[in-house]
Amino acid sequence: MRAGCQRRYMVGLMVGLLGMWAATVCSAEPVPVGETPPVGEPPQQIQEVQDAVTRFRNGDIEGARALLAAACKKHADLPPPDVIMAQLFASVNQLDRAILSLESAIKESPTDPEALVILADLAFRGGRQTEAKFLYTEAQRLMNEFKGTARRKKLILQRMCSGLAGLAEAAEDWATAQKHLETWLKEDPDNVMALQRLGRALFQQNKADEAMEKFRAAKKANDQVLTPEAIMAQLYESAGQREQAAKMMVAALNAEPKNLQTRLAAAQWAFDTEQYDQAKQQVEIALKLDPDSFQAKMLAGLVAYFMKDYKTAESHFQSAHLQSPGNFAALNNWALALTEQDEEAKKRKALEVAQIGAQAFGNVAEAWSTYGWVLYRLGRLNEADQALGRAASSGQLSPDTAFYIARVMVDRGQTDRAKELLKQALQTKRPFSKRQEAEALLKGLR
To answer: Are 184 and 162 in contact (CB under 8 A)?
Structure first.
């Protein structure tokens, strides 16, 4: 799954885990466009470029661009200087200036398609698909007569094909996606992402055998990617074919029983399908394979939380937090596991952890949701109401947040609104940690 696959099973639990899927799994969710961010790091192996980066960091913007212009005259494989400047601006989160640099590159080098492709990537990622299609199409036109080096042509073509395939995937036009991905693979036959995306496009056209061939080719190109059978299991599950998904997941485990990512994929699938005992078994094996795996710890904590084994969940999430102190999900879930336990010391610790989360991640709605729930568990109703109100102000309620707010409303006698929120929470098709409690509360109100 990917940064981009943004599912919500409970209050932000899967943030860390989803990052792992993005790197290793061909998800059943839409695949992000391209192998790299639209504006990445500038090339630094050339001395002039390194000197330009140094000047840029020292605030000498004009000096940096002058050095880049000189470097581009000497090194034909470099993109136009303003494209590299855009990369530098993006590296310090100045996206507006990066876009201005790309527009300048188009004016200075009107026959070079790279700036157009990057702008198209940005437009697509921003949800502006019509704009993206126009820019990709214009870049295609320029590519027909582009005089750049073979290396630059290859890289630009791959990026352009990736973006065009992404547009087709978003429109579920799988045949068109297949065409663009096959063009990409002519230039780079062993590209793992292109092979996996092509496999998905073929699967969506009911070509399962051909899809499996592509996933196997990706595995051959990079042994670290997920087992082909596990990818097929995810796709079958997404297509609503659970029996076939189960068969493929068993085949994946038989094919690579000691592969960490395969075990994690099996655990994730079992969790998604609410087979918590099976998820627990698979994630325990994963932890034996790699006791230090952050993803395994997070998933083990998640499974334990849903099985209401809060002490075990606390242990896993705390360990994950110590391993990655800046990870929001680990910190947030640790607070949740603590607050569900009856010991007052645990609840006080939960408050301490939740306060840290709300301070460090104040722009994340789920941080305030958790803080509010911890306050509620401590009997501090007014403060809980305020924190949960801040979580709700984002405009999108997770099922858990909806349940927390409903719980507070019931205590305040606002039962009609509480019923609406509980019904809303129970409509989710995904695993919901408070489903039983929400059902019982709604039944009582009726």
So the answer is: yes
